[in-house]
Write a structure and sequence with these properties.
By secondary structure, the protein is α+β, with helices and mostly antiparallel strands. The protein has 2 helices and 10 strands, in the order αβββββββββαβ.
């Protein structure tokens, strides 16, 4: 067999490294780019027959990707909505505004973990919070009453 010189070996290593980095970059870019979410009526009737399209998709029928608020340091993203108003999306948070029904008082408490999520059972292991999620806090278990991805805050009631 033939021997590869040291400079040629370095060039081969460099080429492989560049290829690995560019693949990673492409994969990250593809994750960020996604198809438009449409919220128009279904293409199928309840019987399974198809509706005939009478128009194209409209801008007001477009939706967005879910926020998937997870348990971490607080991170809020501001989104422009119709008529120029803004909506605060809580991307991650670790504090909840707790309401104690016995004492009829509000207080802030640190969230330890997600215990139960009725939206999706896999959200529990990923620590994703949605409305109706049961969370474990310093003051006990609580049920989330707000929509963190829409309201930008976690409000909960002690259970």
């Amino acid at each position: 067999m033939f021997e590869i010189s040291k400079p040629a070996e370095n060039i081969i290593f460099l080429a492989l490294e560049i290829r690995r980095i560019s693949k990673t970059f492409i994969n990250e870019t593809l994750i960020q780019i996604s198809m438009a979410k449409s919220q128009k009526r279904s293409k199928r009737k309840s019987t399974g027959a198809r509706y005939i399209d009478f128009r194209k998709e409209r801008l007001n029928e477009l939706g967005r990707e879910p926020a998937l608020t997870h348990l971490d340091e607080k991170r809020v993203r501001s989104i422009r909505t119709r008529s120029g108003t803004t909506k605060q999306r809580l991307m991650s948070g670790n504090v909840a505004n707790l309401y104690d029904p016995k004492e009829k008082k509000y207080s802030k408490a640190k969230i330890k973990s997600v215990v139960e999520n009725p939206a999706n059972r896999h959200y529990v292991r990923r620590n994703i919070m949605t409305k109706g999620t049961v969370i474990d806090t310093e003051k006990g278990k609580a049920k989330v009453t707000s929509r963190p991805g829409q309201d930008g805050i976690v409000n909960a009631v002690l259970v």
